[in-house]
Amino acid sequence: MKHADFTLTDDLIYLNHAAVAPWPKRTAAAVIAFAEQNSRYGSHFYLDWIKKEAELRQQLKVLINAPSVDDIALVKNTSEALSFVAYGLPWQEGDNIVSSNEEFPSNRLAWQSLANQGVEFRQADLSSSKTPEEALFALVDSHTRLLTISSIQFASGLRLDLERIGAFCKKYGILFCIDAIQSLGAVQFDVQAYNADFVMADGHKWMFGPEGLGLFYAKPEARDKLKLTQYGWHMMKDTHNYENLPWEVHPGARRFECGSSNTLGIHALSASLSLLLEVGMEIIESRVIERSDYLKAVISANQQLILLSNQKSQLKSGIVIFKHKSIANEILYQHLQQNGVVCAMRGGGIRFSPHFYNSLAEIERAVVLAAELDL
Ligand SMILES: Cc1ncc(COP(=O)(O)O)c(C=O)c1O
């Protein structure tokens, strides 16, 4: 039986939240209502849209435990926010940035593109030390300006100890940047406990939002270090005073929002977050981990399948990777897709990423479908 908050069709087992999640019922309803309102009244209710935007900022503040809504900018996606940091910081030749060799391209390309300014991008092999955190620390030296890492690795499910990394960065005066797209909406997150300087994530994965609307958290001292790379009316301190000359830049993270908001996306993401916050992130995290633990147990017990997910960290995520003993990933992936299991091919295997609403029975059914394939 499907969860009451979702209308996913019965012939699908949806295990792809680490890629793009389905919308909850209320999100679809919010988008339909917005479309109807817009088509009948245009922007007549613009002030309500501004209120919805403020509500979304408040929800995001709660989700990441930010000290203030002013620390959060609404951005297009993770990549845009990473680029704000990469192109905002005043680099000097010889500086280096420490990261891992498991990052999604967005958390690599922005930094590698600084090579022409003499900035080195160092990629730790996270399995090369006793802990993945120590593998990162081993690459740090007196020229390290920033450490950037995915909170949970997209192709292994490895979850980093952000508190430990944040404490290390603080001790050595290094900026700490977190690509949190595989965490937000799946597990609890606390920018203050992690001493994070910059955090970014798009809303379309575990947060159940639409593509193209994400958040960029920047701590006040850290955001003041960033040179602005985009300009427009929306970043003014006195946003709606269009005649003001000269103008002042917004003191908050809103300075990174140069133009009109993604109002449709804001209505959708706010509806999705209302579900997560209503259930509570503590409960969501425990259910996500219960499901990934269950998946790991069922996969490990199956003679035909091999569990690949990184087991080194004590911290758990919603991502589980496995492969078949004798069947190629491409064939197994096709078989699963054809049988209604929505998943991805990542990290040398098949990636299952269940969310809190998936039933244990459907998760087991997906594993049985993977194991039953016989050539
Ligand atoms: C770790 C990570 N970062 C970033 C992204 C996507 O970035 P964007 O929000 O810019 O599309 C993904 C998508 O798979 C991801 O897994």
Pick out its properties.
single chain; 375 residues; alpha/beta; Aspartate Aminotransferase, domain 1; Aspartate Aminotransferase, domain 2; 2 domains; four-stranded antiparallel sheet; 13 strands; Class V aminotransferase; PyrdxlP-dep_Trfase; pyridoxal phosphate; aminotransferase; Aminotrans_V_dom
Helix-strand category: alpha/beta
Q: Which class of the largest domain in CATH terms?
A: Alpha Beta
**Main sheet makeup:** 7 strands, mixed
Q: Element order, helices and strands?
A: EHHEHEHEHEHEEEHHHEEHEEEH
Q: Which strand order do you get reading across the main beta sheet?
A: 2-8-7-6-5-3-4
Give the CATH superfamily of the largest domain. Type I PLP-dependent aspartate aminotransferase-like (Major domain)
Number of domains: 2
- Relative strand content: 5-15%
Number of helices: 11
CATH topology of the largest domain: Aspartate Aminotransferase, domain 2
- What does the radius of gyration come to? 21 Å
What's a concise summary of this model?
The protein has helices at 25-41, 46-64, 78-88, 106-112, 132-137, 162-172, 220-223, 263-279, 281-300, 329-338, 360-372, and strands at 13-14, 72-75, 96-100, 120-124, 144-150, 175-179, 198-202, 214-218, 305-307, 320-324, 341-342, 344-346, 349-352. It has 375 residues and is of the alpha/beta class.
